[in-house]
Amino acid sequence: MAEKDSVRCQIVEAAKKRFSHFGYAKTTMAEVAADCSMSPGNLYRFFPGKLDIAECIATEDYQRHLESLRKLAMTPGKSARERLRDLLFEELRRTYHKLEKYPRAHEMATVIAHERPQYANWMLANERKIFVELFDDAEQKGEFAISDKETTAEMIQSATMKFRYPQLWSKLTLPKLERELDGVLKLLIDGLCGIGRGATEAAA
Amino acid sequence: MAEKDSVRCQIVEAAKKRFSHFGYAKTTMAEVAADCSMSPGNLYRFFPGKLDIAECIATEDYQRHLESLRKLAMTPGKSARERLRDLLFEELRRTYHKLEKYPRAHEMATVIAHERPQYANWMLANERKIFVELFDDAEQKGEFAISDKETTAEMIQSATMKFRYPQLWSKLTLPKLERELDGVLKLLIDGLCGIGRGATEAAA
DNA sequence: AGACTGAACAATCCATTGATTATTCAGAAA
DNA sequence: TTTCTGAATAATCAATGGATTGTTCAGTCT
Fold first, then answer.
1. Are the CB atoms for A184 and A159 separated by under 8 Å?
2. What is the DSSP string of B84-122?
3. Please, what is the Cα angle at B154 between B148 and B156, to 5 degrees?
4. Which of A33, A156, B10, B151 is in the most buried spot, having the most CB atoms within 10 Å?
């Protein structure tokens, strides 16, 4: 069992190197197998198919991301509003930098999104859980009370789509995207009327 | 001059029929010319190229749309909030129905967006003008006061991307999209705190 | 002179085909 | 028995070149 896991891990590492260097399409199962000193056929005892290796790599990375989001959502000593802001900014920056550093990641994301349409939904649902935790906490501390938290989380995701897959919808630079997210967030939190208090507080 | 315009119009009408029936790629300049009983070369006295005919068709249609938006933005007897809602819903419904009725329209939109990247920006800028007019009016009537109206308009567009090209980002049905837009709009107007008053008013 | 034509050209498309590759599985090795 | 191999298969990809099509322009017609 531990044996099996270590082989799986070896395969994933080999594939990770190939995928990020040559791209998903340009690496063959035979190459990954050779890197692991095994036959192509043997890969299929550990993964149902090529795409599943990619998904495994993506998920591994995504779990780390989720962890860091959870941490941001619960940072003590920060207002709920600040933490919400931190969450969405982290989301934007992570994907932006990831695609900047590993341009091949875009190909992988595209392939997975295309062949496994539910995958993106699963990611969104995971993040919504974090939003809901944050809202629960905010309610307890009397910062704001949201009646339908799950729905509200969906609405926030809907309104911030552009910042979740930044390079996909626009060719804006990161600073411009950040300024725009800042503006959207201010609207989402305070509403059009602005309420008066702390219009600058959010920009800090 | 009037002569020239009528020929242009004839070309546009012929192209419109072909494009919506067979698609942009599948109709040839020769066919459009034949429909107008003229040679292919003659088309180029009226349009710089094939894409410009498509753009002309799109723009004609878009101008009508803009007009209807302007009307909605200025409907007397409605609150600014209601009118803002009407605007965004009209936007959603129009594109949704257009693509449902003319599936070929998607191809044309894609081609134009790809070859003329500035076109989409021009459309967005036009609509922002309407938002700004609406905000001016709202300010005058004391409904809400927005400091930077142009920027606020940009933020609203940013937050409602998903509903501007509905079939592009999701496979949701119109009713689901409407419910989602409704939720996003409520957030945008009232903010997360909800302010207390009229949580149901927006859903009416 | 101005309006228009249609053959010519270059760019693009697209079907065909030959090569590559993901996946399977009968059987070898341990 | 369990683990693994590697040739066989079917699906996909990439190259090719022949046909199609957007665009031009020398020249005809009015």
1. yes
2. HHHHHHHHHHHHHHHHHH-THHHHHHHHHHHH-HHHHHH
3. 100
4. A156
Q: Which amino acid is at B77?
A: G
Fill in the DSSP letter of residue A197. Answer: S
Nucleotides of C under 7 A from a protein CB: 3-8, 14, 20-26
- List, in order, residues 6 or more apart from A64 with CB less than 8 Å away: none
Closest Cα partner for B127 from B81, B70, B85? B70
Interface test with A, best of B114, B141, B158 (most A CBs within 10 A): B158
Euclidean distance between CA atoms A151 and A102, whole angstroms: 34
For residues A113 and A117, what is the distance between their CA atoms, to the nearest angstrom? 5
d(CA B95, CA B100): 8
In a mutational test of the A interface, the residue from B192, B193, B195, B200 whose CB has the highest number of chain A CBs within 10 Å is: B192
Count how many residues are written for chain A: 204
pTM of the complete model:
0.89
Instruction: Compute the count of residue pairs across chains A and B with CB atoms less than 8 Å apart.
Output: 95
Question: From the list A155, A191, A192, which residue is nearest B184 (CB)?
Answer: A155
Please identify residues in chain B, positions 68-127, with a C-beta within 7 angstroms of any atom of strand D.
Answer: none
CB atoms within 10 A of CB B172: 16
Query: CA-to-CA distance for B111 and B115, rounded, in angstroms?
Result: 6
Q: How far is it, in rounded angstroms, from Cα B153 to Cα B124?
A: 10
> Tens digit of pLDDT for each residue in B1-28?
566 678 999 999 999 999 999 999 999 9
- Tokens 């989602």 sit at which residue? B180
Summarize pLDDT for B170-202 with one digit per residue, the tens: 889 999 999 999 999 999 998 877 654 333 333
Tokens for B97, please give them.
Answer: 């129905």
